[in-house]
Amino acid sequence: MKKFLMMLVCGLMAVSSVSAQVKADDILGTYKAVQGGVNSKVEIRKNGDGYRAQVIWVDNLKKEDGTIRTDEKNPDKAKRSTPANQIVLVDKVTFDGQGEWKNGQIYDPTRGKSFKVRISFKDAKTLKVRGSWGPISETVYWTKL
To answer: What is the band of 38 on the pLDDT scale with cuts at 50, 70, 90?
Structure first.
């Protein structure tokens, strides 16, 4: 039991020291994301007072008929013609100083829905991206390239 408690304390200390070392701009970069079996690359950049994640590449950009896939399920009709490799997925997240980016929205183009989002690092190369709507949530992981 003592050994277990010691391992638990050491683990908690390691996790807290990693999150304390995270800086706001650590999130910047290009990530591989997989949603519904589709591979894409997402770039996170500064945008105003926060951060924005935008698709920059998708492996199935063209439909079988040769036309480019667009954001056809977007509730904003003006955005339905946005090419799939230019869709903004996360917008207006801000760093909380404690290792999390939040207070923004994540957009799921496969459903045409937006959700609250919280982003943190699972490890040095993996982002944990958690979208939620009330008590329902879904987590995906993006790998830094």
So the answer is: confident
In a domain, 12, yes or no: no
Task: Determine the structural domain holding residue 83 and report its residue range.
Answer: 24-144
Per-residue pLDDT tens digits for 73-127: 999 999 999 999 999 999 999 999 999 999 999 999 989 999 999 999 999 999 9
State how far the Cα of 60 lies from the Cα of 85, in Å rounded to an integer.
10
Residue 136 CB contacts under 8 Å (≥ 6 apart), including other chains:
none
DSSP letter for each residue of 47-103 = ETTEEEEEEEEETT-B-TTSPBPB-TT-SSGGGTTSBGGG-EEEEEEEE-SSSEEEE
Residue 91: both structure tokens together? 């917008």
**9 is a domain residue:** no
* Count of structural domains within the chain: 1
Residue 4 forms part of a structural domain:
no
Instruction: Tell me the pTM.
Output: 0.82
Can you give the CATH number for the domain in which 58 is found? 2.40.128.520
Q: Does some domain include residue 15?
A: no
Cβ proximity of 126 and 141 under 8 Å: yes
